[in-house]
Amino acid sequence: MRKIRPAGMVAASAPGPGDPRNSGAGRRMDVHLRDAGAGEVVLCPVGEVDMATADTLHAALGGALERPGTRSVVVDLAEVGFLDSSGVRVLVSAAMTARRDGVALRVVDPQPVVARVLRITAVGPLLGLPADDPSPRAAGFRGID
Q1: Is residue 23 part of a domain?
Q2: How many other CB atoms sit within 10 Å of the CB of residue 29?
Q3: What pTM does this model have?
């Protein structure tokens, strides 16, 4: 028996691994953790923070905040080239958890596109960034090529 599709509908297969329609295909984010001493932990995410990778950052931040003796967590965004609302949610959630637990959390050195997202969403000050970051990097200065 032949199945009939309503007009306007087309058959589609679910995207599999490696299929470009799969938004998370091929995306990866690493998070490097460094103990800076005196209770300070530095997290350096590398890659894109989006719906497919935000859980990796969330787990790393949770681990850093739960480490015994942690007084400060620095999130160095120098190697993050993209941040979507999933990433913003993770950073805001971590900042609120840190504040509740008496731990300082701040974001440093965001690339211009990431700084813009944090500025547009007005979460920069919550994350320790000035309301209007005057740094050359945040302003989009890339130097002379």
Answers
A1: no
A2: 21
A3: 0.74
